[in-house]
Amino acid sequence: MSEEEKKRKEKESSAGEEKGKFIIERRYVDDSRIIEPKKLELGGIDMSGRWGTLVLPRTLEDFDTEIYRDVEKLPRGGNIGKCWQCGNCTAVCPVAHAHSEFNPRYLIHIVKMGYTSEIKKHHEAVYLCSGCGLCSAACPKGVDPQGVMIAMSIAFKAHESELTE
Amino acid sequence: MEAMFPSIFYYMPPGNILPHQYIVGLVLILAIFAVLASYMRIRSWKVPFTPASVLSAVLFSKGSGGKNQGFGARASTAGKSTFHDIFLLERAGAWCEERIHTLGRGLVLWGFVLLALATVVGFLIDPLGAPDSAVLPVMLLGDVFQGMIALGAAILLLRRLSRHNLRISTDRNTWALQLVLLVLGASGATADLLSIGGFLAGAQVAFLVNIASIVIFFLYAPFSELTFLVWKGSLLMQETLQSESGKGREIAPQPQLGK
Amino acid sequence: MKAPDNPVLVIGAGPAGLQAAKDVAEFGVPVLLVERRKELGGAPIRWSYHTLAPDFRPTEEVMGPLIDFCQSNKNVTVMKGCIVDGYSGRPGDFHVRIKDETTKNITEKVVSSIIVATGFEHFDARVDPRYGYGRMPNVIGINELEIMLKQGRVVGHDGKPPKRVAFIFCVGSRDRSTNPWCCTVCCGVSIKQGIEVKQLLPDSQVYMIYMDIRTIGLWEKLYWESMEKYGINFIRGRVGEVYYTGEKLLVKGEDTLVRGPFEVLFDMVVLAVGIEPGPGTKQAAGALSLSLNEYGFLAPKIPNVHFDSGKEGIFLAGACVAPMSVEEALSEGSAAAMQAVKLGSRLMQKVPV
Fold first, then answer.
1. Which of B48, B169, B171 is facing A139, going by the closest CB pair?
2. Which of residues 179-238 of C touch A (CB under 8 A)?
3. Nearest-CA distance from C237 to chain A in Å?
4. Rounded to the nearest 5°, which phi and psi values hold at C233?
5. Over the stretch B85-116, which tens digit does the pLDDT of each residue have?
6. ipTM surpasses cut 0.85
7. Peptide bond before C54: cis, by omega within 30 degrees of 0?
8. Which of residues 208-227 of B touch A (CB under 8 A)?
9. CA pair distance B173, C174, nearest whole angstrom
10. What structural domains does chain C harbor?
11. Which of A36-40, B26-30, B93-97, B171-175 is least confident?
């Protein structure tokens, strides 16, 4: 069995049992934020299970602007700072209408603000950009989102090791 | 042949001002430079040089299993991906709701592909002493293809020029690249037409402009957006090759409105 | 009817009051300028505004000539430290009681008309406790930052320049628990200050936490420049709480564009405090029996015609009517002066309206 198959098997087996299924409004909580220790003993008593489950707060901490600075320097990324989040780019984007995970406005925002935890979740989506250029024609501030997506995909690749850890 | 047409095509320049072997050599040197410069530029972004990764992924098995086990399977996956994503413009064109923009891009792309084919055929058959009746159609086709490039570049340029917000945010490099493409196509297409029409001097000027624009294009392309297109295209193909299913980051077909 | 020799009474020596006094005096009509404080110039001078939005004009350049004129012109009589206590009579022949606040002496004057320009107060951010103003170091208002900018030295309580500054918009504005109106200027002023902080400390990071950006008219230029030229970041959202960690300020809020709460450390938090009617406006309204609107500003007869108080001979001008910028207050002062001069000339000529 190859390494990849093993990983897939593991994934399948863990996907079988849903994490934190007793949580009310479970669909609002990301899998990654639920911690269910398999073995949690306190004073010899097994605390694992429902009462040992932790839900991590969904809080964005610190603005890490390193990727933002890189995007600004890369070709066609220099206008990212002009963005004021009007959402015209996403509104006209044909890819975003079919793929909710690709949202140019949102990608620009999380990069500008430096929300690393959000970038980790969404950086893969940037490669979905088809480069049609409708966003750049619609942008009222001259951000050139098509170009910013180019710069962003390069910057995300350059920082891939930090983003996928 | 020369008596009938004082000048033809750029493997037989007007008035023979530049022997075609020199042009072949020049283009080869420029192409090597372009690859090297692209490599340097892509590496300066601190990302892998993906065209090389694609080559190695096709040539050497990674043993990842799945559909792309053998060399043949990988080569066919790469071929299919190239055909669909690049030649059929499925990644850019199909999503581009502005038909005129897709048309411009398609004309430039197909103009280049066909021009390259016609040029190679011309280089091969002309020195072999092929009859005029065989060379002439190839030559004229080459002109048509250059015309396609010029038309496509003109569409792309006019699209930008006609929109204020596009115009103000357009990068200098984009203007430069589209202008070079326009000059390259237009001068190539007119050089032969002028010489057929008997304007030898004009044909020679157009020919020299064409050669100059080709040189500029090769020197400039590595520093333009084309490098990114090559990089991203290769990246996506690399993912396609290394994935188990033989599918990379696929864009699902565009949904139809009202369905 | 005797009218033209009687002076025009101007209450308040801020931008609107000074401009009104100057315009009336330049017509050759005497002016009685009553100011509650000891200095002329109103809020821009009292809070030492560094520059005025949107063009970074030094405050002195705008206010200086007005103050100099009113202090030196023979037509203008300035009474500092005084308030108007009450009035009787009718247009052209008002008898006003002017009280010196320190000596409690009351003098009676006869004036032809009254221009009320009692201005505004900055919102006291202690009223809204979640930002920790008054309890934590390095939480300041835009009025205090303006003083720092004037001194050319933006520093925290420890004397070090801040590395990361947050501006929190709409403090004491657009909130039912404090003041429900929009102060109209603090977006522009905060962004102006953000730019000035970046000019002073180019290595600092400036973040604007806003609900809506209301840089109306030509002030929009500030908003664009701050993003395009100075790289100031805008976070759409609200701040719930500010904590002092002993070293830095932990700002807890929500970024509504990410739909996520954030907790980020800042070195300095600047509160864009709003505008509210001050005690002077309330006092003047009582003394002159003027009506106040639901928010405590002086209510004009028709909301769109600011200068018309609804009482003949009494005119309104400036931020005592509604929140406004210095540029608007100046033209309102001018408008009220025109009304006063017009009334005086009508009374003198006994021309019916």
1. B169
2. 205, 207, 213, 223-224, 227-228, 231, 233-236
3. 13
4. -95, 140
5. 888 887 777 777 788 888 999 999 999 999 98
6. no
7. yes
8. 225
9. 46
10. 8-119+278-349 (3.50.50.60), 123-274 (3.50.50.60)
11. B93-97
